[in-house]
Structures
1.
Amino acid sequence: MKTTGKIFLALALLVAAGCAQQEKKAEGKTDRPNIIFILSDDHAFQAISAYGGRLVQTPNIDRIAREGAIFRNALVGNSICGPSRATLLTGKYSHINGYMMNEEKFDVSQELFPRILQQNNYQTAWIGKWHLGSLPEGFDYWRILPGQGHYYNPDFIEKGGDTTRVPGYVSNLVTGFSINWLEKRDTTKPFFLVVGHKATHREWLPDLQDLGVYDSIQFPLPANFRDDYKNRVAAQHQDMTIAKTMRLKEDLKVHLDYSKGPVYSRFDSAQLKAFREYYEGKVSKEFDQQHLSGDALLQWKYQRYLKDYLATARSLDRNIGELLDYLDKTGLSKNTVVIYASDQGFYLGEHGWFDKRFIYEESLRTPFVIRYPGVIQPGTSIPQLMVNIDWAPTMLDIAGVEVPQEIQGRSFLPLIKGDTQNWRKAAYYHYYEFPQPHHVYPHFGIRTEKFTLARFYDQADTWELYDLEKDPGEVNNVYGQKAYAQVTDSLKQQLQSLVKEYKDTAAERILER
Ligand code: CA
């Protein structure tokens, strides 16, 4: 009797364990990974050492790349802030999700993939920069910066709460709030968290501890720094050069008036003291002593621009490290996918520019690294063309959720696992915002492995073609040259079919002209 009783008990325990396991599976508690998407603003791949950046070290972004995968050709469909975020949320190009230019109001009633994650038992949160005109939908929790937000002592709006001004530096606050949320979350569910950074957006304010950190470094000029824009109408008419557009006072902080404007009036006395000591006591003083003009002034501006920009990026990178450390400490690293991306690339003096917008490499491409323990082999490098329309479907794929047909991108998980067949050979791009700011003519085009073909329209009715192998700096527009006639025909056909596939009727009409 005794033995029979033991067997019965053992069987009962097994059945109970089996039931519990089934229940857990049904609720998706155990086997679906968490996802953290760290999204910065205007962070150039040239400024990241994992991309072979010529400038500084970014050890924490590099760590994600080293422990996971780096996308060498991650592109955006429309190289400005809001539209890139709208594409992240929808998996669609701007002409479909309706958010084509900054400072419009994003329609949050449309299908957003975080809402689909919610319906599939994920907790969702967006913390930090949002900047889409409307308030977030599809998130269990959000705490965002109104508009562009501020670097120091920024305001935050919290879901179900008020707008409050929080003392501190924005990258540290966004990281701290993210960790707070992780601490308080419902641990029975997997989560999707966007950590939205303001850095490294203009006006490039570093954390106090990073002020002047790169002052001893003389940064090299990009090869095409003195671009003459020959044969390129749009490049001739832009308003985004370091020489003319970049402002000594507001951008480079020479003789700032700290009592005026929304940025510095919110500083506390310690912050004001540190800024005055550095920008007034050192930077402005050096500037006054040198009596710069012409090319010397241009080079000084370039050096100052990079020093501020890269110091701001350093504050950002340190915060990414803090989040990674937290995940290690809590054991979350094991079952959490971590992504670092920027909303688009940025010019660090290439073509003589700052800002973004053009289909040219530095703004078309964006940094994108992803760590997915057990799925992505550490040290993976992906050369294929990935576009930000692929971000949403990949998140759904990671969560094991079916991707709705209307999403225009594709999950890149198969690609990352080595299945490169049937992956896209050409990527589509369409930029709209004109004339303000920066006066970049609207254009659409395609990028293949070797070429970029662009159609500028409205005021600039022109084509441009770049042979990226021969001309990586994109200073020779070879459109119309005999040697490229065949290539051009083929690229135009590919462009036409992409325009159709993505239902860009405005571009279709322009091609028919
Ligand atoms: Ca941006």
2.
Amino acid sequence: MITSGEIRRLFSKYDKSRLTISTICSHSALQIFHGAKWLKFKTLGVTTPDRRFVYEAFPLAKPDIFIEVREFKDILSKDVQERLVEENCVIIPHGSFVEYIGAANILNRLFVPMFGNRMVLLWESDRSKQREWFREAGLKTPREFKNPSEVDCKVFVKYPGAKGGTGYFIADSAEELEEKIKRAMEKRLIKSVEEASIQEFVPGVRYYFHFFYSLMLDVGFRVTKGRLELLGMDKRIEPIDEAYRGLPNVPEEFFDYTVTGNQPLILRESFLKDCLDMGARVVLASQRLFPPGIVGPFCLETIYHPSRGFTVFEVSARIVAGTNLYPQGSPYTAYLFNEPMSTGKRIALELKKALESNRLEEILY
Ligand code: AMP
């Protein structure tokens, strides 16, 4: 594994006055570049040739420099990484970055400094580690079943890795579950039953909370040495949301949980107490489990049920695509900043504050 010491040594050679914010051109890259440019950082986008025009189509979010690669994974090649170092790049990880490059590759092969604590990838990308993190945080989570025969309620079945919900399904009984797992194995969606994550199906309203844990700003909700900010929230749109349209005979393919978009959302104000409490617990647990813990943006994916309250079913420990709804800020950033503030700009602001106070090492790994 590439250690924080190695990253720090390399970073000490950087020309800090020419720091460049960089990521791969996908997911929330427009927002990241837009925010970085707003704060006058140089920007660099790693792109495949076919996507470049998308980033040229939005001049205010277009990176100053492009590096073209055949496929995103090529960012790991020595040539590309050396070029990124030459340009004094700090990489901002996002959902597609982690999906295309792979958590293990980032931990073992990416020697370019990254914003945040990359140890979080170990805890985020492995479902059993994620559960341990939630347990440490004392959060309510869906019941999990190791063996299909133990199932005694409606269940929700997921596959390893963040595949955006593709192929997930529900089952009402142990028999239905066994049948559907068999089919998933035939379709090679999973190799064995052990790979399927079988959770209790949680009914309710979904809320995806966008948090930012800052070590550089202090006035507000203090959590140990930093401040926890609620930057916004969204609800994901999935084909399942439209399933009622086909009633009474809904075709099976409508039971599809692939994320296709996001809707803005605000929370009943009296629930903000629960929301901020969950965020703080996740930060505190991360500091105990993998010091210095989570740094920067993260998202808690929750389901609210009137009598059960909030159940957390997933954490994304980096900027999420739902934040793309708020390039000029959200109803919540209006109470935190006197200027428009997207999550992308917030990342750049954290880097700017750390640069000004000579504390960049604390927020990079
Ligand atoms: P995930 O990959 O964990 O983000 O899940 C994708 C989608 O599946 C979510 O946005 C929810 O709509 C749904 N989902 C995930 N877990 C559960 C659960 N335990 N109960 C009900 N729906 C779920």
3.
Amino acid sequence: MDKQTILTGITTTGTPHLGNYAGAIKQAIRSSKKDDHDSFLFLADYHSLIKNKNPEEIKQSCLEVAATWIALGLDTKKTIFYRQSDIPEILELNWILSTFTAKGLMNRAHAYKSAVSDNEGNSDPDKGITMGLYSYPILMAADILMFKATHVPVGQDQVQHLEMTRDIAQRFNHKNGDIFVIPEAILEKNASVLPGLDGRKMSKSYNNFIPLFSSSDDLRRHVMKIKTDSLEPGVPKPTDCNLFEIFKAFASDDESANFKQKLEEGISWGDAKEELFQLLDSHLSEPRKEYEKLIQDPANLNQELLSGAKRARELSVPFMSEIRSSLGIGKLD
Ligand code: TRP
């Protein structure tokens, strides 16, 4: 089998939280250390502009996301780690692909459809919807096709975007020859969806998240806020509770079995929260130190991203000229 090329994008909105860790970061970092494939990981900062136009927040989020991944052990020698906006070829490809994309295909994108349904009852169904939101899947296709990714790990919500990427690439190849590699989605089986403080999915949009890196005290304060039922100490606790779901994402099998037993034996919620806090704190205290160091030196992080971009452009620049010439754009001889 040919060597796989795995590519992952992270939209830089908000502060990385425990849910991001369990849902994507953990697996991606583990896979970044393996030698059997090429890997690309990038900050999708142009995607974030669709949701956020606050320059300070955009910058801060980029900084936090980059520092988080490196602090948690991303191997930036093996993985090419870059910022989308440092690769101008991606935007160039975005335009080219948009000329191959059926408008009807974009009409069917989930994010767009859900924005339209939020406008129900309004005389303009497209009220407040930008072209950025509408053509979001094309930019994502450009991210993926630019680096000839063969496999893209995604959550369920992104599967449709991968199908669109394949569709767009096939249309292009049909007209212009075998230029693009047709990527496959890898649905992350090991990824878990963590409950947030209120029991709903942990998410920035619900504001129910526990940041990965805040002070130890702040982490404890958050853990103490996790919603539980009102069962008294001594009464067995349900093992499908929010605390245990979060615990499992960080614990070894033995630690999980042990915690489960304590729940069944009726540990008080207060003590159970203390155990969860201790577990999280022991896992996060080392990376937290690293994170603090990184976040205080943005110039160094910037350098790191630029050197990733340099490696990425060694591929994107020549590939872009191949793409252009397949279209008859540019050079006349
Ligand atoms: N849309 C992805 C998300 O919201 C982020 C993303 C942008 C991405 N470009 C990508 C993911 C390319 C994988 C490949 O999670």
